Amino acid sequence: MTSPSGSSIDEAISFLEAHPAVEAFDIVLVDANGIGRGKIIRRHELKGLYESGRHLPISILGLDITGEDVHETGLIWDSGDGDLRAWPIPGTLVPLHGTSPQRGQVLLSMYALDGSPMTSDPRHALKRQVDRLAARGLFPAGAFELEFFLLAGERDADGRVQPARAVLDGRASGKTEVYSVDHLHGMEPLFSDIYAAARAQGIPAETVISEYAPGQYELTLHYREDVMRAADDLVMLKRLVRGQARRHGVTACFMAKPIEKYAGSGMHFHVSLRDAAGRNLFAETGGESLSLPLLQALGGLVATMGESMLVFAPHANSWRRFVSQSYAPVAPTWGVNNRSVALRVPAGDAKNRRIEHRPSGVDANPYLVAATVLAGIARGLDEGIDPGPETTGNGYEATAAAGKAMPGDWKTAIEAAKASAFLKEALGEDLHRTFTAIKQAEYLRVARTVSELDYHLYLHEV
Question: N- to C-terminal Cα distance for the chain?
C-alpha cells in the first residue's frame, strides 16, 4: 500500500545504512493532549512500518491526560476499539542522542484502513487549515518558542517543587536570574546535549534564555516556511528536552504554572502569510503603518480568541498562568512591540512582519494551536475584521476599557469551546467532539478530587 502520509521506504533504508548501531525506535503518535503515544519497535521492524504502516487502536486518540479511555469521544466501544493504521511522517525519522543502546524515533500520523486521514488526529487538523489557505494561494510560515522549567527531583520541605541545582557544579539558586548568562553556564552540560540532540534530529534550535522565574528557561526555534514542520519541531524539541534533562538527573517541566508566585511558561507562536511568489502579505508595501492583511488577521484572532481559549489553555493548571503583569495576556488585545498584549507585532524589519500569538501555555498541543490560529487568521481575511484600536502602554490596565474578555476559568472555556461553531470548523467536527469530551472528562476528574489544599483550608476549620 502506498503511504498516505507521503513517507517512503527509501528514508528507512537510508537511515538504517547511516546508523548501523541503532537497535530500536520510538514510534510516536501525538494525541489531543499533546502526549506521545505509541510503541518501541526493533530495528528489523522499521522497514515494515514504512511499507505497510502500523496498526494502532482507534482509542489511542480518545484518552485523557492519565491515559484512561474517555467513552464520550465515541472512539472506544462505539467503534469496537478497532485498529487503524499509523504511518510515518516524512522527515521525522531521527536518532536519539545519548541513548544506550542506541535508539531512533519517528513521528506517526493516523489514517483509516483505506488511507483516508483519521479526523481525530490533531496533525490532520493543522494540515486541513494549511491546505485551505493553499487553495487560496496563501502559505503560512512560523515558529514556536519553548518555555519550560528545570526542576529538582525532590520537593522542598513544604512539598513544593523547586528549581534544579546547576548540573555543572550543583550550585543552587532561588533567584529569578532573568537573562543571566552566568546562570546559564551552570546548565551548560545539559544544554550542550540538547543542542547536540537537536542537531542530530534536524531541529533548528537557536537561542537559550534564562527566563522570568527561578529555574525557567526558553529555547527558540528558527522560522520555518512550512508551518507543519514548525509544529513537528516543537513536538520533537519537547521530547528531547525532557529526555536529556532526565539523563542529567533533573526534570524538564512543561506545566503552564508549576510555581505559584512566579510567571508561568508560554508557547508563543510566531506566524506570517506568504503569497505564491513568496511575498510576506503582512509586510507594509506603501506608506501605511501596518498592512491591511495584517490588521485583518489580527481582527480575526481577536474575534475568535474567547471561544478558542480551551485550545490555548487546555488544563486546570493552564488557568493559573493568567495573572496580571505576569507576561501572560488576560484579554484579546493587540499592539506593536508590546509584551503585555495577547497579539504582539514584533518590532524590526517590516519585510519580516509577523504576529506573535502569546496566549498559549507550553502545555498546549502545537498542532491544535496552529490550526486554530490559522483558522482565526482566515476568518479575519474573509470577513475583513477590524481588530479595534491598538493597545499601547500597559495592556493589563487597558483590558477593562477595551470591553473585551476571555473566559475567566477552565469550566467557562470548556463550555465556550463546546458551543463554538468556529472551533468546530477550525478543528473539524470529529476532533472538536474528541477534544471537548476529553477536556470535560479531565475537568470532572479534577473537580471530584480532594486535594491537599482542601485539607489545609477545611480539615480543622469547618
Answer: 66
